[in-house]
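README, section 4: Worked example with a bound small molecule

Sections 1 through 3 covered apo chains. Here we extend the same pipeline to holo records, where the ligand is supplied as SMILES alongside the sequence. The molecule in this example is zinc ion. Nothing else about the input changes; the structure line simply encodes the ligand pose together with the chain.
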Amino acid sequence: MNGGYGDDETGDDVEVPSETHTVCVLCGGGGLIADPKLAIIGGVPRTVDNGRPCPHCQTVGHFPGIVPPV
Ligand SMILES: [Zn+2]
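The generated complex, written as structure tokens:
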């Protein structure tokens, strides 16, 4: 009942071509947008850059498929 299973053809493994996606033009793929702000901390003015989630891609950084730049 154990048929010969020696014909191991692994060469037929088709690799999925690199998924087509479009990098978010707003954040450049990082998912976050630099958002430097001037803040007074301890009486010292300094620049705070927490970054904020990209509203365009929801921090994903890219979109599936091809999205033409707006
Ligand atoms: Zn984005």
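What to look for in the output: Residues 17 and 65 are 13 Å apart (CA to CA). The mean pLDDT is 82.

Section 5 describes how to batch many such records.
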